[in-house]
Amino acid sequence: MRCRLCHLGQVLRRRFRRWLILGLLAVGLWAAYLELVALADGGGGGGGRGEHPLNRRYGSWSELAKALGKQDSPMLDPSLQFYLPQKLEVQNQVHRRGRSNSTALENSSSWRLEINGQVNLHVFEDWCGGSIEQLRNNIHFPLYPHTRTTLKKLATSPTWTNYGLRIFGYLHPLSDGEFQFAIAADDNAEFWLSRSETISDLQLLASVGKTGKEWTAPGEFGKFKSQKSKPVRLSATKKYYFEVLHKQDDKGTDHVEVAFISDMEELYKLTKDPYFNVIITDYSSDDMDVEEALKKSSLRSYQYLRLTGSFERSAGLQAGIDLVKDSHSIIFLCDLHIRFPGGIIDSIRKHCVEGKMAFAPMVMRLNCGASPQQPDGYWEVNGFGLLGIYKSDLVRIGGMNTKEFREKWGGEDWELLDRIMQAGLEVDRLSLRNFFHHFHSRRGMWNRRQLKI
């Protein structure tokens, strides 16, 4: 009798465990069903359809940040808004109010990050061809790039092959004025600028090629006429949307860079100097109408001289010197690609003494891809091509050497410096802040003839 009772107890325990397991499975299936129904109806935690889908997918903000940081993360739907928690106060204040971190998350509001001095960079990988049209044929372009990141300069050289780039953002001009944009790339590239902050107003201003076979060297902005834009008037009170498209194949040294040039009008507006005169000698340039641009500017005084033949630096400078009739005027010799600080005129006047001293300020040469806003370069300690001197002193030492330096580029500044010193004049040297020489290559700058260096 005792054995039968023991056997019956064992049977009941086994059956109880089985019923318990079946009951738990039934509860789990029912809970899963209810969750699916809630998700299908747009519910989920009382948020309804207003709850962000990302909040249902990730358990914490740190987990979400890690997921978004992966390069292979799929692009989110553009209609989604990204919510971040408000900046929490110190923990003791939160605890005093009896509120937890979860409560703070529920009360979060939309948050937008403004990144000044940076632009968006989207990379489209593993796509052959060197033309922008081939980039547009990519099924992932423009919404689904492989990589999303930012740039601090409008220049990059990833040293990759078979890829495309889309760089976009907003330009915030530091001052009102006319700007000329230029682009260089290997292979094809395009620079688009909107006349407002909207994408619908985009216009193509500058480009490198269309077939995928065209390319330039870094800093070479004069190889193709299409590389430079016409002067564009921008306002410091507005922002302008822009895009740069670049396509690289499997050959060559990949790079793309965008530069802009502001005319001397900005310096005149800043100084309001009535004795500030601009002299430009032009060797038959055809990329823009320099004389027309000067007429439309607000410059009070300027002179323009168009020269013919191949480029000769010494002869061009001497032609400009000859236009100055007052022997007691100060002449400042300079080239293009220079960014002047606001106090340059006053500095030249202070450091030039007629019959006694000339002034050779030291310029900072910007490296490829650098800009005055993000300066990266070196002081030009061995260059004396930027020189301020009285017209009478320049005439006394013989002016520029136009005989020995006709087709040879370089060295004319040292030769002029030697004659200045031999005449008993001192040369004041000073490193000027915000005095920049923009990067450019020498190849392709001079027309019709390769100059000897």
Automatic annotation (TrEMBL):
Topology versus the membrane: Single-pass type II membrane protein
Cell compartment(s), UniProt: Golgi apparatus, Golgi stack membrane
Any one GO molecular-function label of the UniProt entry: N-acetyl-beta-glucosaminyl-derivative 4-beta-N-acetylgalactosaminyltransferase activity
Matching SUPFAM superfamilies: Anthrax protective antigen, Nucleotide-diphospho-sugar transferases
GO cellular component, one term: Golgi cisterna membrane
EC number: 2.4.1.244
Keywords assigned by UniProt, alphabetized: Golgi apparatus, Membrane, Signal-anchor, Transferase, Transmembrane, Transmembrane helix
Family, as annotated: Belongs to the chondroitin N-acetylgalactosaminyltransferase family.
Protein name: Beta-1,4-N-acetylgalactosaminyltransferase
Organism annotation: Phrynocephalus forsythii
High-level lineage: Eukaryota, Metazoa, Chordata, Craniata, Vertebrata
